[in-house]
Amino acid sequence: MRLDFRVAPLQASVGVVSALLLASLTWGTASASAATVEPTPVPARSYYVGSTSTTQAENEGCEQGEENLVNLERAVVILDFGGQLKDGGAKSIVVSKLKFTRAQIEAYAEAFANGYLACYEPFSDDAAPAAGGVSQSLALAIGTSNDLHEVSEAGGTAWAGDVAAVARYVLEYPAQAEQVAIWGGNDFENAYSTGSKALKWAKGYSAATESPYVDYGDAGGCSETNHKNESCTLAEHNKSGWDQKVFYEVSWGIRGANPTPEIYVPGNAQQWGQIDLYGGGTMSFLGPLDENREDEPGGGFDPNEAWHALHSELSEEDLNYGLPYSLTI
Q: How far is CA 244 from CA 20, 61, 159, 192, 297, in A?
């Protein structure tokens, strides 16, 4: 049976990593009523990974565990390993000559999960309250992008295998499995590959695993004012085959896809509002991703501005504006 693994309350079948994924797939994104004013979530730090050090990964995981415990928050965290290589590894986006093997990707993610559990006390009276009937407090997304070689069905299948390997590792430790869900992720952008290649990757991933993935990419060049399946162009940087339909499919329409879009500057939220309207207003956004570049040349949204920009756009369009998470990278 084909199952829908979006983040709205769902059910999962028993599979290789089902004990972990059954909980992770029921994370709720409850619709907010027009009269509700939702508080801004505490932003969770995501990472462009630039090291193979498992000690560094453990420290980063520990920091997130302490953050969740102090703020009584749950979080989505992305570990971005860069573009996917033909051998199944990835090339770092922040260290030009650093290439990760599949084993290094898995070890880094596993160490992050270890560090998180070491510093988060799941049975403390101060633990973050469960949401949607799930006690897990962290969804850890193992991310790549569509800008290198393996933007294909085979690439999606291979990445799903890496995600499944980490999920199996987490399942070996019941206390950790109760707190950490392992997901995939892709920074889909139309400056990187054709739309058809991105779709093939997403479908390959979806067919190979029950674990969801986050689309934490942009919607470059998409319309901010209409939703008639407009073409999305980025002048000379645009690759072919991208329109609102393709962005909708890779972020929500494909089984397992969940949107955490880049909301970096004014206009980004409007682009995603129109994509949602194109799809009939059915999307449930986990929350926005920002780069917190307000103090850098050229500016950009900080986490609070990014969250409110997306929240306001969805609210104004009478869409589901319950955004339970905030991500900054």
A: 33, 35, 25, 16, 30
Cα end-to-end distance, the chain, whole Å: 36
List of residues 6+ apart from 297 with CB closer than 8 A: none
Here the CATH number for the domain that contains residue 128 is 3.20.20
Question: What are the tens digits of pLDDT across the range 237-261?
Answer: 667 899 999 999 999 999 999 999 9
Report d(CA 150, CA 135) in Å as an integer.
Answer: 35
How many domains, the chain? 1
Give residues with Cβ within 8 angstroms of 35, minimum separation 6. Answer: none
217 closest CA partner among 180, 242, 182: 242
Q: Please give the structure tokens belonging to residue 247.
A: 């962005």
Which of 20, 141, 168 has its CA nearest to residue 81?
Answer: 141
Residue 38 domain-assigned? no
Cα–Cα dist 97/150, whole Å: 18
Q: What is the pLDDT of residues 74-87, one digit of tens each?
A: 899 999 999 999 88
Q: Which domain holds residue 124?
A: 18-31+43-328
What's the one-letter identity of residue 31? Answer: S
**Which has the higher per-residue pLDDT, 5 or 49?**
49
| pTM metric for this prediction | 0.86
% of residues, the chain, pLDDT over 70 = 81
**Residue 37 counted as domain residue:** no
Q: What would the two tokens of residue 40 be?
A: 């801004």
